[in-house]
Design a protein that fits this description.
Strand content: 5-15%
Radius of gyration: 50 Å
Structural class: alpha+beta
Number of strands: 4
Distance between the termini: 108 Å
Length: 245
């Protein structure tokens, strides 16, 4: 039990920034989801029909072109009067998307209420049909309303689950950054003394003894001028003395 408690304390000391930041981030995300204003979306559909039955590929190409024009002022000008908004306001609320293999244009409108989103989508779709059909003789295609926008009771944003997940992820990131800033560099330990140092010092001391003794003796002490030692000279002098007897 003591080891488990010690391990738990170590983990708590190390990971407490993350453990604290994740719930706070999730709570902040949930608070944003509750306080943010809901946004609703609705989509209307327009189909591009070729005048000649064999021009299906041409209809797809024109659908993509008209889909890009759905957010342009020349199309939005006709829808602004129907919605009671200015062209810049309507441009921020409506956008068009197309399919690469079908001559269908999706006009999506957004608003603070479901009816406002549907009204904006329908107005822009109708204005696009009028704008495109003025050039039917040149393009060989005709724009036809396919489906009107339906008001939805469920807002597209904010999403509570998504906001909570984003807040928790932000908490993980902030906690990890706090942990990185709290790390301190380890203090350097004392320098290790080589193991052979004492032996080398002792060997040096023993080798210095004879040298010191040799320095005290005078060079050539005990040698006669001829280069022989005094003991050898004494032996030579003793031989005649014995013969004289």
């Amino acid at each position: 039990m003591s080891e488990l408690r010690q391990s738990a304390r170590q983990l708590a000391r190390r990971w407490w920034p993350v453990a604290l930041a994740v719930p706070l981030g999730a709570a902040a995300g949930a608070g944003y989801a509750v306080a943010a204003h809901p946004v609703y979306a609705a989509s209307a559909y327009v189909v591009v029909a070729p005048q000649n039955p064999g021009d299906g590929a041409s209809a797809v190409s024109f659908a993509q072109a008209y889909g890009r024009l759905a957010g342009q002022p020349q199309v939005l000008a006709g829808a602004a009067a129907a919605t009671g908004r200015t062209v810049p306001q309507l441009a921020a609320l409506v956008h068009g998307t197309t399919s690469p293999d079908a001559p269908v244009i999706e006009i999506t409108g957004t608003g603070a209420r479901p009816k406002e989103a549907a009204q904006a989508a329908d107005a822009v779709a109708g204005s696009l049909v009028v704008f495109g059909n003025t050039s039917t003789a040149e393009t060989g295609v005709k724009l036809v309303p396919l489906a009107a926008a339906a008001a939805s009771d469920q807002p597209t944003s904010p999403s509570k689950q998504l906001d909570v997940a984003v807040g928790a992820a932000a908490g993980v990131l902030i906690g990890a950054l706090v942990m990185m800033t709290r790390r301190r560099p380890e203090a350097p330990g004392p320098a290790a003394v080589p193991a052979q140092a004492p032996a080398a010092v002792g060997a040096a001391g023993r080798g210095a003894g004879p040298a010191a003794g040799a320095d005290r003796s005078e060079p050539g002490a005990g040698l006669r001028p001829g280069g022989t030692s005094a003991a050898a000279g004494a032996g030579k002098d003793a031989v005649p003395a014995a013969g004289s007897r």
